[in-house]
Design a protein that fits this description.
This protein has 506 residues and is an alpha+beta fold. The protein is 31% helix and 24% strand. The strands form five sheets. The protein has an eight-stranded antiparallel beta sheet with strand order 2-1-14-13-12-11-10-9, with helices on both faces. 41% of the residues are buried.
Length: 506
């Protein structure tokens, strides 16, 4: 009786269905979004609200950059980041539906030259394992090789040197390499390049005329990330990073209106404008909660107020409950940018938010603010998401800066076994390729690092004994320790970076 009473109370607090906003409510949300953007400091923002089979409202905020004051519009292209994974999952499942791929058939039947670090996983891994992120790749490990500038074929041939750190099928472990392989699988099964297949089977039928996998074909808003050191926290601009090598995992560029149409397609069971673009089975299968996402897999930007709730991964989407409703979506992180795509199938509504600030919590705050105003629950359930998440983000950045100060204060200053001059040279790793260390042009107390064909720049600073620290100039990556490795004669033979050993070539 008590449980029935609680359920009845919740039903009264949260309406059974949302309804379309009035023009006044849309204007209020627009004003609130711009006010939040100004408070948070995100330079560029674009939002699209989807209801039923169409985008009912979309706006751009800010400009392309400080120097280029071209206004952001709903047609401005942004990197979609990992939203690309939902396109890959849909394309792969469409091939399964058509009988050209098998969901639980070993992928080595198509990728006959595939070699992973485990021969067992190589022989047993299926498309299901890839799309559900349960092969064992460690989150984001190996992604740096993409920024180094290696191509898709090179990276594919090196996967045997990227370790699988989790037991096969033991848990969810998010990795771009799962979807990278799914893209290769689509290519083999369809007989055409991955990008061409997605364009012909999804982008063109859906009317996404701007969406592309070619970064050089358009002008993007300037990307930004939070630079954090022991002395300051500031928003820093950064040049775009070409990640087309992992197009199936994160290489799509699209406008907020185009991603709004993608949401509408999923709300309409794969049918839009009188055309069945995706089979309903594909749409339904993607939204099934197939594997639980452990709490330790939720990154720092996941709202602390939502932690503890059950979150599952489907195929290209995450699935959870919010305000008593099923919420489907995904975050898209690309260097310099943050995207959220989400929708509530039972409410026939969704929202897309794109920002030019890497890992900003503003898109999440805007998303949560939207749903509570759309659903209009009891006022006792309203949360000031902007204030709450801005406090969370500020506290997280301040803590990172505090830890940097603490590390600097604890340095004793023990000289490295090999002087910096002796570290100059070329280093190689079978997956990450070539890294070059040079004398710094202006500071003799540090070295210049150049990674891969792109000559990705960084600085190597002596820290404590054999340990040095690597600081990237243009990427929002954590500063890592690099340890000198010497032989019995104290000659430098390589560098240890986490679990990876880079051998000195000269």
């Amino acid at each position: 009786m008590f449980k029935r009473l609680v359920f009845l109370c919740l039903a009264l607090l949260i309406p059974a269905a949302g309804w379309a906003w009035t023009p006044e409510e849309l204007a209020s949300y627009e004003a609130r979004a711009e006010q939040m953007r100004q408070q948070w400091g995100d330079p560029a923002l674009a939002i699209a609200i989807v209801h039923g089979n169409r985008v009912i409202w979309s706006r751009g905020f800010g400009t392309l950059s400080e120097d280029d004051t071209t206004p952001i519009t709903p047609q401005t292209l942004f990197p979609a980041g990992s939203i690309s994974k939902s396109f890959t999952a849909a394309a792969a499942l469409q091939l399964v539906h058509e009988g050209q791929l098998g969901l639980e058939v070993p992928i080595c039947n198509w990728l006959t030259d595939l070699e992973l670090s485990s021969s067992d996983v190589t022989q047993r891994a299926t498309l299901f394992d890839l799309l559900a992120n349960r092969t064992g790749f460690y989150p984001h490990e190996g992604d740096l090789a993409v920024a180094f500038g290696y191509g898709a074929d090179t990276l594919y041939g090196r996967l045997s040197h990227l370790p699988l750190r989790h037991t096969f099928r033991s848990r969810f472990s998010y990795s771009n390499w799962n979807y990278f392989l799914a893209g290769r699988l689509i290519q083999e099964a369809s007989g055409m390049p991955y990008e061409q297949f997605v364009k012909e089977r999804i982008l063109q039928p859906l009317g996404l005329k701007q969406a592309t996998f070619k970064m050089s074909a358009h002008q993007l808003p300037m990307g930004h990330f939070w630079h954090v050191d022991a002395h300051e926290v500031r928003l820093q601009s950064m040049p775009p990073v070409d990640i087309r090598a992992i197009a199936a995992a994160g290489g799509l560029f699209a406008s907020v209106e185009e991603l709004g149409r993608w949401v509408a397609l999923h709300l309409q069971q794969g049918r839009l404008n009188g055309q069945q673009i995706l089979d309903p089975w594909v749409v339904d299968t993607m939204q099934q909660p197939l594997i639980e996402m452990p709490q330790d897999s939720l990154s720092w930007w996941y709202p602390t107020t939502l932690r503890g709730q059950s979150v599952h991964y489907g195929f290209g989407w995450s699935i959870q409950q919010h305000l008593g409703r099923k919420l489907v979506g995904h975050l898209g992180l690309a260097p310099g940018y943050m995207v959220t795509v989400s929708f509530m199938p039972d409410e026939n509504v969704g929202i897309v938010i794109m920002s030019s600030s890497y890992a900003s919590l503003l898109p999440i705050a805007l998303q949560l603010d939207f749903y509570q105003h759309w659903l209009k629950p009891c006022s006792c359930l309203y949360v000031d998401w902007s204030t709450r998440l801005r406090q969370q983000q500020t506290a997280s950045l301040a803590e990172q800066s505090r830890l940097e100060r603490e590390m600097e204060e604890e340095r004793i200053g023990v000289e490295p076994p090999v002087p910096l001059k002796g570290c100059i040279g070329t280093y190689t790793h079978p997956f990450y390729g070539t890294v070059e260390l040079r004398a710094h042009p202006t500071d003799r107390n540090q070295l210049r690092l150049l990674g891969g064909p792109n000559r990705l720049p960084g600085r190597l600073i002596p820290w404590e004994g054999a340990d040095m620290r690597l600081f990237w100039d243009t990427l929002p990556l954590p500063n890592v320790f690099v340890t000198q490795v010497t032989d019995v004669n104290e000659r430098l033979i390589g560098l240890q970076v986490g679990p990876f050993f880079l051998q000195k070539a000269n």
